[in-house]
Amino acid sequence: MLTKISDSCFYIKGHVNIGYITKNEEGLLIDCGLDKGAAKKIIKILKEHNLPLNYCIITHGHVDHYGGAAQLQKELEIELYSTKLESSFVTNPILEPIYLWNGAMPIKELRNKFLEGEAASIAGFLHEGIQKIGPFLFEVLPFPGHSYGQIGVLIDEILFAADSYFGIDVLKKHKVPFIVDAKETLETLKKILNYSFQGALPGHGDYETDIRETIYANIECHENILKFLSSSFQGQENGISMEDLQSLFFNQFELYPANIGSWLLYRTSFTAYISTLIERGNITISINENKLWLQCS
Ligand SMILES: [Zn+2]
């Protein structure tokens, strides 16, 4: 279903929300869903409404946001745009399973359509600031934290916020959101509060005109996790191994990953929080008995 936000802006609500803007008989998508099926659905909905499609911005290189691109490019002449870093994942989808598997060649189990999409070609890179694609003039906002080079798109006073924040229900469901950098995630969340717009659409969650409560809930979620990780082994004089702290973390937040892939996604978030606590000077890291070892400082 296509929902209208303003004269030019629309979105298709789904597991991942797809933004759509039309101007001068041209159409721009913001992200394009997980796979071939998602792409076909987008094409069908736009056709039903007689709406054009020429370009697509990929906010970040996670499969649920770019996986449909290859199919879009097979069926239509779509130009794809993203930041330089996130484009690497779109053109080399194996990179996600590689980083989840500690940089080694990933095991077969990780080479599935949720972690490794079909490669698509990129027409050009987006940079921070005002950018133009065809008739579309918009502002690219760097939103790092959930992904290294993630961007938000501010167009016609609507913010397409990607995964810079999650809807409150989504946040509750995931308990621990996927992040690669806790410090940047928090800075991005605080930065969003300073922009003015009529409304914002996250990648996962509802379109809202006032997102303050949702943003505060996201900030609280991350601060709460950081607080747990820095205080959970305070009484242990010798510190704790990173592995043991990770187990405590999984138990505390009741994370029950159903497969290796989701276990690894949580581990990346865990590592991201630990990096920030080390950077903040709350904990130190060393090697003890051949294990990575954490101590409160
Ligand atoms: Zn994402």
Automatic annotation (TrEMBL):
Coiled-coil positions: none
Organism of provenance: Lederbergia wuyishanensis
Domain Metallo-beta-lactamase: 15-204
SMART domains linked to this entry: Lactamase_B (SM00849)
InterPro entries: Metallo-B-lactamas, NDM-1-like, RibonucZ/Hydroxyglut_hydro
The protein's name in its UniProt record: Glyoxylase-like metal-dependent hydrolase (Beta-lactamase superfamily II)
SUPFAM superfamilies: Metallo-hydrolase/oxidoreductase
